[in-house]
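Open question from group meeting: does this chain pack into something compact, or does most of it stay loose? Before anyone orders reagents, we agreed to write out a predicted structure and look at it together. Recording both the input and the output here so the notebook holds the full record.
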Amino acid sequence: MTVAESHSNWARRLLGAARICFAAAAMCAIAEPIANAAGANAFDPQTFDVALEKVADGFSRPVFMADPGDGSGRLFVVEQGGLVRILRDGGIEPEPFLDMAPFIADGNMEQGLLGLAFDPDFARNGRLYVGYTAATSATGGGVGDDTIARLTVSKNDPDKADPASLEILIAVEDPYGNHNGGEVMFGPDGYLYGGFGDGGAAGDPEGNGQNPRTLLGSIVRIDVSGETGYTIPADNPFADGNKGRPEIWVYGLRNPWRFSFDRGTGDLWIGDVGQDWIEEIDYLPAGSPGGANLGWRTMEGSSCYEEDECDPTASVLPIAEYTHEEGCSITGGYVSRGAALPDIAGVYVFADFCFGTVWGLGQSADGEWVRSDPVQTGLNITSFAEDAEGNLYLTATDGALYRLVAP
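Structure tokens returned:
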């Protein structure tokens, strides 16, 4: 959702723009071609098209939607100011499910309540997890902590979370107000994943992206199956803590504004917001070991960030990218698997926040990643979301929740 900072390095980056491989209906494969990730037919970018169907409006700064998967038919919409609202039968319940406003910092356009995930066993245990920027810091430094916390549903009302149950799991001191990540999501392995930005300002002045001894600039992976706290999965790349924080799964991120798992394959997709010039999509196939260095701030996309020369082989390069000629801030999405869009099954759907464009990304018959022409929405798209059946939604700054449907 980040609106990128000033483009002070554009002149230098334009010199290398030719290697970014743009075509009208294709985004070049930066990494080497791989076997078709969709596990389906080759993607023809000329056939991609989607339409939007408004589900509800009247939300205040919606930034996410989650389905608890409990058969209740409820959808839960996250408002950046701190509320989680229940959408039932197309109407918004008058009372919020959760009010985190007393706990969050919301002064920067990128701060607030940013993520929500329901436990895979939510119908039984009533647990949920939130990602937010806290109003205070446990250490007394920075602008408040980037936080992952757990709550439970009220014993007396299934439409209310119990604020007294709030348990902070991870709190990371944040030096600046932007680049907060904030997403929380359960992976197909049952572990909780959470995204953290690099700490903010511009250009990662503290070098957090390439420092695995901080959680800033990373996606963490933790086991929250216990009654309290969390444990470290044994196969986390730094599980012993010797070379990095044991919670880290991947690092080298600037601001992962929405990552997701393909419900059909288990592949991990990450939309990482760029600095001066390049927005990128990172892809880690199911079964990939942890510890991938995704490049920032040595790299911005597939290009060296500040140095004229760098070693791209030290990073896992993005599978696709676009420059600020076509947008300014990526909103990562999902691989489409729902019945509402059968013609694009297996296609990754993502957007640009600033330009309001939606694209599809998939693999051609020879394994190259190709991108569709943009679908214009006229919206500032803050997030994509997925219901229990795999149908796709998006939220936007106009205060509405939309369902993606066939045109």
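Observations to bring back to the group:
Helices lie at 10-15, 122-125.
Residues 1-29 have pLDDT under 50 and may be disordered.
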